[in-house]
Amino acid sequence: MSPKSQIKGLKALSSTIHEKNISNDFYKNALKSFRMLKANFIPKDINSIRRDWIYDNTLLVNDQGDPFKAPRRFPPYAPEFFCDLPVTNNPREFKNIFKTLIPSINLSFMKLIYSDNGKDEYQFQSAQKSLSLYKASFKDIYNTLLADKKESTSIWVEKWNDSTHMGVDEWVYIWKNVHCNMLSPKVQSSAWETIHRNYMCSYFASVAFNESPMCKLCGREELTRTHIFLDCNIILNIYDHFLSFTSRLVDIHHVNLLERAFGLKIDNPDNNSSLRNFINFSIRHIIFRNRNRKFGDPNTTTQKMIKKIGNFIQSELYTKFKLACINNKIDKFKELFLIDNILGRIENNALVLVDFD
Ligand SMILES: [Zn+2]
Question: Structure pTM?
Answer without folding.
Answer: 0.59
